[in-house]
Amino acid sequence: MKMTTLPNSLRARLLLPLAGEGGPTKRGRMRALEASPNVAHSHAFSLEWERARAFRSAAIAALLLASPAHAFTAYVSNEKGNSVTVIDTDKMEAIKTVKVGRRPRGIEISKDNSEVYICAGDDDTIQVLDTKTLKITGNLPSGPDPELMILSPDGKTVYVSNENDNLVTMIDTKTKRRIGDVPVGVEPEGMAVSPDGRILVNTSETTNMAHLIDTQTKQIIANVLVDARPRFAAFKPDASELWVSSEIGGTVAIIDPQSHKVTQKIRFEIPGLSKEAIQPIGIAFTNDGKRAFVALGPANRVAVIDTATKKIEKYLLVGQRVWHLAFTPDEKYLLTANGVSNDISIVEAASLKVLKSIPVGAFPWGIAVATK
Amino acid sequence: MIKRCVIGVSVAAILSILPAAAEPLRMKFGVLRQQHSSETLSILDLPAEDDTLAGALIGVADDNTTGRFTGQSYEAIDEKLAPGDDAVAAAQKLLDQGAVAILADLPADDLLHVADTLKSRETLLFNVSATDERLREADCRANVIHVAPTRSMLTDGLAQYLVWKQWRRWLIIKGSHPQDELLAAAYRASAKKFGAKIVDERVYVDTEGGRRSDSGSVQTQRLIPPLTQGANYDVLIAADESEVFGNYLPYRTFDPRPVVGSAGLVPTSWDASHEQWGAVQLQNRFRAQFHRGMNARDHQAWIAARMIGEAVTRASSADPKTLAAYLTGPDFNIAAFKGVRLSLRPWNLQLRQPILLGDGRMIVSVSPQDGFLHQTSELDTLGVDKPETKCRLK
Q1: What are the residues facing B82 on neighbouring strands?
Q2: Residue A191 backbone phi and psi in degrees, to 5
Q3: What total number of domains does chain B contain?
Q4: Is B377 near chain A, with CB under 8 Å?
Q5: Residues B383 and B238 both lie in one domain
Q6: Do A225 and B313 touch (CB under 8 A)?
Q7: Where is the Leucine-binding protein domain (chain B) (predicted)?
Q8: N or C: which end of chain B has fewer CB within 10 A?
Q9: Residue A347 C-alpha, separation from nearest chain B C-alpha, in angstroms
Q10: What is the structure's pLDDT at A67?
Q11: CB pairs under 8 A between A and B
C-alpha cells in the first residue's frame, strides 16, 4: 500500500472499523485491520497531531521503501510462559517478550490496532496491552477464567467465554465495563460473531454445543449439538456457514446459520496417525472464503480445505500441538501457534509451504496479527 | 455476595431456556456404592463420606446444564451399602425408585450378582471401581459397561513408561491377599508383553495389624531394608491393593531405587493433581462443591454420568435399550479431560482410556507412550486386546 498517496478522506475512513471486517475475514485468533501502518494509533491524540504524525511517518516510510510495503506485528500468547512474544513478520523474528498475567490464552487486537486484549485466565481478567509502548495499561472485567474472546465487527464490544462459570460476558471496550452476561453450557470456549454483528456464537466444551446468541436481546436463539469438546467457531466470510471444530470428536461441523442445522461434518484422516491424535482446534478462512485452514493439535498438522467441496487439499506439517492460527493482514502468511514445540510456524499462503519456525515462549497458544 | 451472584445466574439461566423442548425428558440413575476401607497407610487417602457419589453429582450437574438447552433433566439416587448389606436388594430398591441405570461401585462378586439379577430388566450397569480382569473376560456381561480400567491396563500403562525409561529389571514385592497376587500376575504379563525382566518376587505378609501408631516410622525404617536387599534391579514394584505396605517402601529400600506401582509412581485413571487437557476445570468445579480432591472413583462415576448424559442427548431417549445401543455402537465417544477421546471396546464393553502416572502431587507421564503402536487405537496397547479376549458377551 502506498502511504504517500493515501488521501486524507480514506485515512479517516480507515480509522473507523471497516464494514464486515472483524467478522470472519481475518479469522484466526484475531482479525487485523486492512489499514496503512501510519493510522495505527490511539484515538486519544488530536487529529492535527495524527495528521502531522501520519505525514511524518509516511515520509520516513517512503524513504525506506519501496521494499516490504506492509509491516505487521504478531502477538503470541504463551500459556505457560505468562508472556506475549512480539514478532516482526517482515523480519520473521521475535523482537520482544512482554510479561503478562498468568495463563494467557485468548488474544485479540483492537480495531484501531492500538491495543491487544489478552485473556489472563488464572488472574480472572483480560489485560490491555498498548501496542506502542508494549505496556499493560489496564483490564477488562471478565468473569472467572476467561479463555477466548471476540470483538464485535464495530469494535465496541468484546465477547468473552469464561471457562469457570458457564457464562459469556459482554464488555464495552470503551468504558471497559461489563454490559451483559449470557448463561451457556459447561466450559464455554469458542467464540464467533457473524459479519453483521447480530449473531454471537459460543461453544461449550463439556456440553458439546454451539450456542447461537442474539447480540441485541442477549438471549440464546439456538443450541446446536456438535461432536465432543467443541473448541472453536468461525463464520465463513460470506456468513453462509458456521464452522465449529470438535477437538475430541475429531470433526469440523458445518452449521447452516439460518436453519441451525449441521449440514455436513468434515473428518480428517492422516496415514500413520491414529484417529485419537487428530484434534481440530483453530480455524482460519481466507478473505475470499475459498479456503479454510484447520489446526489439528497433536497431529502437528494444519489441514487446507477447499470450502466449496469441503475436500482436504493438503496437510501442512507444522510444530507440535498446533492450537490457533492467524493470517497476516495481507494474507501472505499464515502463522500457527505450536503449543508443545514452543514455536510458531510461518506458512506461505500462496504456495502452501511451511517456510520457517520462530521460537517463542513456553507453550504458545493464541496468536493475533496487527498492522504496526 | 457470592450467594446473590449465584441466584442471579440461575434466574438468568431459567430465562434462557427458551429453545428447550416443552416436555422435559427425565432421567434417573442410581449410585450403588460400597463403603471403602479406612485402613489406608496415609491419612490423606482416607475415603470421604461422599466417595464416588461426589463424582456422579458433578456429572449430573454437567448433564443438567446441557439438559437446560435440550429439555432434559437428570437425577442421581444414592444408595450406600454398609458392610454386609445385600447389593442386589439395594439395586432393586433403586429400580423401584425409577432408576434406569446404575453406577456400581461394588466388589466383583457383588457386581456380577446385581448384573445377573437385573438382566431381565434391561438396566444398564456402569462399573466405576472394580479393576478385576475377569469381569471383562470370562465373567463379562452384556449389561455391564466398565468405566474403571482393568489391572492390566494400569500395569501396562506403567510398564510402557518403565520400558521407555529403560528401567527393565523389576523387583516385585507383593502382598499376601488374593488381589495382590492378581496384581502381581498383571505385572508379570506386562513384563512379558513389553520386554521387561522380573528379577525376583517377594511377599510382604499381612499380619493384620492396624495402620495407625504413634511411632510407626521407627520400626518401618528398620524393616524395609532387609526386605529389599540382595536383588539386582532398576525399579521396585509394589503390588499392594490392601494398603498394607506399599507406601512404606519409598526412600527406605536397601539400594537407592525408585518405587512404583501401589506407591511412588502410581498408575491410575485419575488423580486430584491432574490438570492437563482442561482437567483443571473439572478439578476446580469438584473442589468448589465438595472441598476435597477428585479421586479415581469420583472421576469414573463422573464419566459414567456423562456417558448417560451423552447417550440421552444424542439418542433423544431415556430408554435403556436405546441408550445401550448408542453407547455400544460405533458413534460413541466421550471427552474426559485425558487428552483423547474415550470409546468402548465392543468385545467386552471396556472404556478405552489413557493411564495417568503420578506420585500424588504431579502427573509424571501419561500412557500409552510414544512408539507403542496399534493397528486400531494406541489405547488398545493397554490391557487385554481383542485377539486374546475370553469374553463372549451375553
Answers
A1: none
A2: -135, 135
A3: 2
A4: yes
A5: yes
A6: yes
A7: 54-204
A8: N
A9: 26
A10: 45
A11: 94
- Grid cell 446404575 in the structure block, residue: B102
Q: Give the pLDDT confidence score for residue B9 in this predicted structure.
A: 39
Please, which residues 243-262 of chain A have a Cβ atom closer than 8 Å to chain B?
Answer: 247-250
Complex ipTM above 0.85?
A: no
Same domain, B226 and B307: no
A9 pLDDT tier (thresholds 50, 70, 90): very low
Domains of chain A: 8-64 (no CATH), 72-370 (2.130.10.10)
Residues of B with Cβ-Cβ distance to A209 under 8 angstroms: 66, 69
Does the pLDDT value for residue B268 go beyond 70? yes
**Are B191 and B138 found together in one domain?**
no
Q: How confident is the model at residue A337 (pLDDT cuts 50, 70, 90)?
A: very high
Running DSSP on this structure, what letter comes out for residue A148?
A: E
List the CATH number of the domain containing B375. Answer: 3.40.50.2300
Q: In this structure, are B258 and B161 located in the same domain?
A: yes
| Same domain, residue pair B221 and B259 | yes
pLDDT of residue B219: 77
Write out chain A residues lying below 8 Å of B351, CB-based: none
Q: Print the domain residue range for B250.
A: 150-207+215-267+355-394
B165 lies in the same domain as B284: no
Q: Which residues pair with A251 in a beta bridge?
A: A246, A267
* pLDDT at residue B377 greater than cutoff 70: yes
User: From the candidates A164, A186, A340, which should be mutated to test the interface with B, based on the most B CB atoms within 10 A?
Assistant: A186
The CA distance from B163 to B84, in Å, is 43
* CB contact burial B149-175 (16+ within 10 A = b; e otherwise): bbbbbbbbbbbbbbbeeebbbbbbbbb
